[in-house]
């Protein structure tokens, strides 16, 4: 059962979260493996995408954003783009587009940053946008302050959080074919409740890297190995790492209230996409293939529209979607 646990260090300006995705992550991989056009992800790709999914879950829960958080990595390696999306209710989906061969030992740089031009983007898309409101997006390169290529996704995201929130953050991420997991430790702002919403002060910036309590806890968190994160249950991990600290624990989010796979694709959305292609291009596809078939990269579902369905798309009003509701 996938689960997310949140905790505070009593009396210290430090908070933490730990997530363990098993059922949710296994469903993402199983749907990809069942896709006859793409087949299963190579292990290095699955590991990267699993780490992204765990990280997106932690970041969504950390900011409590009323909308979708979308974590993307794109670059010039065999993985052209990888995407993990987390909703406020912790429903998740993820996918990656792979072109060419992937080495069994490929790391982050080999997958998406061969020429050091890879990018990581984090998008916050409000559920109910105000008129004229656009999603917020922050983009960072996959290299450090001296231009060195970063070898781990956690390094990239720690760099992003330090830039965007001016708060020290420690991330430990791991994934395999069974589990995707992550531990987040973050220094809390010192100067009032408003900073919890993301506004830092000069005093907070002065604390970067200097808070002894955070540095001690960060060192403990960083000692967690990949094997431990993937194999141990959450209670054991927290007890081993922080047995000398006083933790204030919140109720875990699990089951239907916790992390779980869900896809937001629908026949309505696909019909809108076909409408955006224009009647001429849609007719060309019908003439060549006899029908328009669109598959969802996230969940693998196939949507099919014949000539009658397509004619009704362009005949009806924009909100009306024709054809059968059956999804194959």
Polypeptide structure, described:
- The protein is of the alpha+beta class and 328 residues long.
- The chain has eleven helices and 14 strands.
- The strands form three sheets. Strands 1, 2, 8, 9, 10 and 11 form a six-stranded antiparallel beta sheet that branches. A six-stranded mixed beta sheet has the order 7-6-3-4-5-12, covered by helices on one side.
- A hairpin with a 4-residue loop joins strand 4 and strand 5.
Write the element-wise H/E pattern from the N-terminal end onward: EEHHEEEHEEHEEHHHHEEEHHEEH
Distance between the termini: 27 Å
Number of helices: 11
Largest sheet: 6 strands, antiparallel
| Uncertain segments | 192-202, 318-328
Overall geometry: elongated
Q: Which percent range describes the beta-strand content?
A: 25-35%
The residue-averaged pLDDT reads 85
- Global Rg: 22 Å
List the helices and strands and how they pair.
Elements: E1 3-9, E2 14-21, H1 23-33, H2 43-63, E3 67-74, E4 79-86, E5 91-98, H3 108-112, E6 119-126, E7 136-141, H4 153-165, E8 169-175, E9 180-187, H5 202-206, H6 212-222, H7 226-231, H8 234-242, E10 247-249, E11 253-254, E12 260-261, H9 267-277, H10 279-289, E13 292-295, E14 302-305, H11 307-315
Parallel strand pairs: 5-12
Antiparallel strand pairs: 1-2, 1-10, 1-11, 2-9, 3-4, 3-6, 4-5, 6-7, 8-9, 13-14
List keywords for this structure.
single chain; about 325 residues; alpha+beta; 6-stranded mixed β-sheet; 11 helices; elongated; disordered C terminus
Tell me briefly what this model is:
By secondary structure, this protein is of the alpha+beta class. It contains eleven helices and 14 strands.
